[in-house]
Every structure is written in structure tokens, then in C-alpha cells.
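Our collaborator T.R. sent over the components below with a one-line note: 'Predict the complex.' Nothing else. No constraints on interfaces, no templates requested, no preferences about which chain binds where. So this is a plain run: every listed entity goes in together, and whatever single assembly comes back becomes the starting point for the next discussion.
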Amino acid sequence: MSASNSKRGSYFLITPMALVFAIFLVIPLLTIVVVSFWDYDEYRILPDFILENYSYLLGTSVTWKIYLNTFKYAALTWAFTLGIGFTVAYFLAFHVRSLTWQIVLFMVCTIPFWTSNIIRMISWIPFLGRNGLLNQALMGAGVIHEPLEFLLFSDFAVVLADVHLYTLFMVVPIFNSMMRIDRSLIEAARDNGASAWATLRHVILPLSKPGIAIGSIFVITVVMGDFITVRLMSGGQSASVGLQISNEIGLLQYPAAAASAVVLLITVLLIVTALLRLVDIRKEL
Amino acid sequence: MTTDKIKSKSILPGKDVTRRGFLKGAAATAGVAIGSGAITGFPTIWAQNIKNVTLRQFGTGVSNINAVADKVKEDLGFTLQMTALDSDAVAQRAVTQPNSFDIADIEYWICKKVFPAGTLQPMDTNKIKNYDKISPLFISGKLTPDSKIAQGTAPHKVGFVEGPDSTDFASAPTQWMTLIPTIYNADTLGIRPDLIGRPITSWAELLNPEFKGKASILNIPSIGIMDAAMVSEAMGEITYGDKGNMTKDEIDQTIALMIKAKQDGQFRAFWKSFDESVNLMSSGEVVIQSMWSPAVAAVRSKGIECKYQPLKEGYRAWGGGIGLAKHLSGLELEAAYEYINWYLSGWVGAYLNRQGYYSAAPETAKKFMTEDEWGYWMEGKEAQGDIVSPEGKVMEKAGAVRDGGSYEERMGHVACWNSVMDENKHMVRKWNEFIAA
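Returned assembly:
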């Protein structure tokens, strides 16, 4: 009796969340899937069942190029944010001794977030431009004679902006994982004669893996879907999957955009699943 | 919308009464020109109810200006609500939300696809007082009787339908108009003469390797492909049957040429919004690009040299007009006609002319401009005094001459109009290939 009551109670308790998910996640997602099979012309979407959206999407070399490009951005951003994020988190967790300073420095890391993403991104443009601050400084110092063209409106600019925008997403979970590492393990490692490098490799790195995985999921999913950084920093000359979807929406090609969105969703889910297989995040939460 | 109505009823009753009294007075003295003098000839009941009318207009930012709505309130007494959107959103709203607007300010190339959707009603030209003042460009497609009709979706091709309930475009002018033309212009390349240092005379220069890494093109497929076509044709690479309605093969060739240029590093960036084009040009990242006239003015207003360069192959033109929603009827429909008549009566025309665009009824706009303004903007004459924007900002000093010369010189040299092609879907896909290449 009481068991069935508590069961009913649990169903009752999960209902609000389930409803919210159903209305704001499941139904829109199903709509996107349904629309991805519809036909369209310039200004209408036509309820129908066609596979043309998918067959074109998967059959054209444009899609493969765009996905390759998107993976390139995601991989580069991931590698740099991981390197920088891990170092920053390591410094905060193990070199800063007092908790107060840890908190203060951690807050300092979040200061850039007081300004919007787009503003921080756009501010790179006058800095990197042909007549920008960096080129002027380098030319003034006599390091170069011609302005460096690759700095702006290039893949370099896209990855730079992405790294700048998303490194904190790596710092936070890795720092969180590192703070949970039992300090006596590190002492034990040192007592057993491990060098700092060996301790890092055999103790800290494995124990930080859940944080790295969470950070990686944040960074990769954000970069995979990003369109505004790619558009602004590449000067519209590069494409990403997100940008492709945004263009299709702009041209009222909703079914094509829906098909691209479904394919992107599946791709990102596969990446996340793979990451979760490497690390048991639930243990950590 | 509701708050506006309440405001006019409760907060400003005194002002309303005064204005109505003023309007009645104006109606009595027929000589006084308020707008088109529209109030006369309508039953008194109409004059009294009109203040309760609210018309909702939407369109692109170029012509959906609050100054127009303010002037409508002042001259005609009713409320006009303006919503400015981008071209894509305009098309989408006109088709998918027909009850969300009363007046649609749309571009002719979009009209070609939007009007057949049946959300707009044709307008009776007998009710358009200044119909005969409308530029022949929108009636016959010819600015002067001997000019050639340009390629693409020329406004007159989609300007008329067969009857009041028809959505089929008529091949010759009829009594039923789809859009009343309001604004139009001829686009060309913008250049930085200080950084180029030599005359530019052809569209082909956009792909000249001399400007490698310093050129840009507009990334709105329907318009960008036309610029690309102007360039390809000027280079002698491709000959088109009709640039405004290319075959699949012509599209493929055009895009192939652009992809090659892109891979050779010709382009610095692509722009999509007005500000982007201004920034690219004023920062010197780009020295030659397809550009809109007010964007050139914006670069110049920063004190940076920029030229809206006339080219020997001619201009790529675009035009916009206002259409009436299907659901309009009764008093609101009358008010909408009144608004259209007022629109063509000159004040707006002068306002648009002063922004560097053109009024659909140039003759009437002339009455609202000084001789010097008319000379500078419309006749290609040297400015006698400072040329001031509608907002009162000095745009050009005395002695300046408008790029491209007079109205006839510019609009008479239109090579093609912005358009929607039959192979639009294919074109957009190829354009995406270009961007991804």
C-alpha cells in the first residue's frame, strides 16, 4: 500500500518536469523531424513526405566540406580550451593555497562574462584588422613590413574567438574536479618518490577526467552549433553547420534547415555519447 | 496599438478636437494644402472617425521610417504603426501572417512570389489621384519612350494583375495594381578612391587580381548572384539570356567563376548587413565591393573617401512599393487609399530623395524640395549650398556633385533588376557551395 503510494507520489512529483520537457523539448523536436520531410518552395512549406531534403543534404559535397570545417573548428577549439583550461584550473587548485584567493581568482576568470559574447567577439575585429592595433604595433616595432592578412577574416580568427569565448567552460568543471581530489593522494605520490610530472600524469589527470569530459561536452556542443562567431570572424567566407542552418532559415527553407538540424543533432549526440563512454560522469555529480 | 488609441482618446482630447477643427477649416478652404488635400470630398462622418483608425505597416528599414508615421498623424489624422524587418522576414510575414498587417511595404522581386499567395488585394488605379505622376518605369518599364527594358524582375512585370480578385500578373497595365511604387534606386560598386588611385569603370574590376584580398561581395543570394552576373558578363566570361532569370547552366558557370576567385584569395570578406559593409569599407579591409547608396553616404560621413562608382555596364536596380492586405475593407480601406494618395503627393518623395533614393512620383516631390536640393539629387548639378539629410545632418558641402549624375542618367542605365529566378532553389544551393568553398 505504502509502496504504491510512494510510487504514485514519485509520478506526481516528476509530472511538472515531464510536462515542461514534453512541451518545450519533445514536441518542438518532433516538429522539426516532421518538417524535415516536407517540401518547400520560395515562400511556403508544403506538407508532404519527401526524402529529397536528406538525400540532397547527405549527397552533396558541400555538406561534407561544411562538416569537416565544423569538426576542424570544434577540434582546434577543444584542444586549445583544454590546454589553457587545464593549466588555469591546475594553478587555481594546487598553486593557490588560500581558499579566499582561490575564490577571488576564480571570480576574476568570470569578469569577461560581464560583457556579452558578441561584443567580446566583435572587439577582436579592430584589434586584428589590416590597420588594426596588432598589425600597427608589429609594424611599428619593425617586426613585419606588410600587415599580416591571416589575422582577421580567417580560420585563425574563428578559432581565436572561440577559444577566448569558451575557455571558461573548461576551467569551471576541471577546477571543480580538481578541488575534489584528496590532497593526501598527492602527498602519497610525493612520498613514493613521484616527480611532479608523474603525479600530474598518474594522479591528477585521471581524477580530473570527469571535469574534462563535462568541459569538453560544453565546448564541443557550443562550437558545433555556433554560427555567429564563424560568420563574423571569417568575414562570412567560411561555413559551419550552424551557419548553414541559419542561412536556410533566412531563406525560408525551413524543411532543409530542419533536415540539417536533425543531422547535426544526431552528430552531436554521437559525440556526447562517445565522451560519456570514456568517463562515468554520474559518479561525479 | 491599444495604448495609442487610449492615449489619443483620454490624454489628448483637447489636441484632437483642435486638430479636427483645423482639418474642417482646411476642408472649407480648399486652397490649403494638407498633404494631398485628401480630407475634402469625404463625408463628415469619415473625417470624425478617422482618428480611431490604426493602420499597421511593415517593410524593410529603408522606407519604414518613423518620421513618415509622424507626418501621417499630422496630415491625415490616423495612426500608422511602422515595423521594420529585413527582406527575408518581410516576405515571410506577408505570406504566413496575413492578418498581422494592413499595409505591406515590399520589394518588387519579393512581390513576384508573395502576391500569388493571395494575401494582398490589388489596388484600383482610379482611386489613385497621382497615378499619372508615377514614373513610367513602373508602368511601362521604360524611363523614356526609347529606353530599353532591363532584365530581371522589372517592377512593371509584376505591377499589375488582371482583375480585382486575380493573382495573375498582367502583361500590360490594367486598372489593378499590385504595389504602389514608393522607393527605388540603382546599385553599383562602392570604391575607396584614395586606396585605389585610378579610375574604375567596369564591374569586371571586382575580380581584378589587383584587388586580391581587398574585394567583397554581398552575401544575400538573390542579390549577390546578380552582382556576380554583372561581373561575369563584364569580364566577357559568360553571356546570359536574362541575368534575372538564369538557366541552371548559367548559374553553375557563374558560381564556378566566383568559387575560383574565392579560392584564389580574391575576397576579404562577405557582408550581409548594412553596417558590415560600412565597417569593411571604412576600416580599409576592403577597397572595392558591391554596396548600397546610403552605406556609401555613411562611410563618407565619417570623413573617409568613398565613391558610389557608376560603371559602363550599368546599374543593378531594386524597387519597393506598398500593397494592401486582403482583409482591409470599409473605413480602413478608405484610410489606406488616403495614405497612398498622400504618399504619392510629395512629402515622402522629397524625404526619400534626400536620402539618395528616388521617389515614385518625382514631379510631386519637387514641390517639397528646394531648387538646390532638386538640382543636386535629381539633376546631377553641383550643390550651391550644403546638402542636408532629412535628419538635418550635413551630408555634402557646397560644390559637391552626386556620383552617377542625374536621375535620368542613373535610372536610365539600369542593366537588371533584383529578381527571383525560376531556378531559385538551385541557385541558393550553388550559392551555398560558393560560401563553403
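Summary for T.R.: Chain A has a mean pLDDT of 90.
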